[in-house]
Amino acid sequence: MKLMVVGGGGREHAIIKKLKENKEIEKIYALPGNGGIAADAECVPVGATDIDSIVKFAVENAIDYAVVAPDDPLVLGCVDALEEKGTPCFGPRKNAAIIEGSKVFSKNLMKKYGIPTAAYEVFDNAEQALEYLETAPVPTVIKADGLALGKGVIIADTREKAKQAVISIMKDKQFGDSGNQIVIEEFLTGPEVSVLSFTDGETVVPMISSMDHKRAGDYDTGLNTGGMGTVAPNPYYTEAVAEECMNKIFLPTIRAMKAEGRPFKGCLYFGLMITRDGVKVIEYNCRFGDPETQVVLPLLKSDLFTVMRAVTDGKLAETPVEFDDKCAACVIMASEGYPVKYEKGYEITIPEQIADKVFVAGAALKEGKLVTSGGRVLGVTAVADTLGKAIDNSYYMVGQIHFDNAFYRHDIGKRAMEAEI
Length: 421
Ligand code: AMP
Ligand code: GLY
What we know:
Radius of gyration: 21 Å
Bound molecules: adenosine monophosphate, glycine
Structural class: alpha+beta
Number of helices: 13
Oligomer: single chain
Distance between the termini: 46 Å
Strand content: 25-35%
Shape: globular
Largest sheet: 6 strands, antiparallel
């Protein structure tokens, strides 16, 4: 079996390491991969959004199965293009990836099918949005319709800031065409839970729950990032919450997508908030989360490749998906200045005995040495019997790793440890 994984971050490293547990797999290519992934797969210098080259590579190298991990190629139709040439894939087709690719689509889907989410209005005209904001309650949340590198959500605590966000997105085109339409929605409060799920379009199997830490600074201060650390399971995701989610959110979403003629196959990510009025959907992602994957997959007991094949073949209902009764924590080591501006090219030293606990996100190989090449550099992950131990072990390993200008949050998992359920 020859596999290909599209993408090149910490999430892809976690996916590749898990896939490698299957002995049927002889070879894994990563497109483009990164300097750390190179230890586990053969990296091919093809960008994750270069669909034509990805398809060409799959055909020329007789790839048996492809995993398309990032949002952009999925939204661009990478799976459709690969399937057309006969390569089976893990990931949704373009007409289903729109659940992440367009916030207007996902909000309208939830409204049509009664799936709980924040109240909202859609605007395709800046003047009307600005007029609406004259009387809208604050704080309010402004969302660019399309993909915006995780930066398209602005929480405005004053009307002035909200208006500024509308102007940047719709008039100044901060996110290009992604801002042709916007959603303005009600500000919700409550603990957040990420639930990744496997679905073949009919059956949905939630994975172990997790908690992301999106802000750059300790105690949720500073700018929003792609995620500075994760823990799994998330203590707020109790059995009662899980049941509510299955009945009111997970199954209705899968059925809604099918009814719309857009069956979703792959990993559907539910970003949820547990509010006083019940669980509500904050966002859908059409893929594995990053860095949620780095804590979820190490806890997967079943063989990942078998589960992925079952998703592709529509056989998820008859395929067991089991998780270890353990906990995991991942601390992201980033470059000082992330998510705004940071320097690259610093040598990274990781002690040999902990190297397999480190998922590499932003690093390159230079003269045989691993050097920093991105904002998020490493995801240092520990699995243990308790959450406390997993967090301690992960920070212990962080202390043994070095690169210049490294920074990380010191409170990953603290909120989870203090959760009062
Ligand atoms: P996203 O970039 O879509 O992952 O959203 C970033 C973060 O914004 C989410 O994780 C939430 O913390 C926050 N957020 C998004 N929508 C809302 C909302 N309606 N109310 C409160 N917070 C929100
Ligand atoms: N960690 C959030 C995301 O993957 O979008």
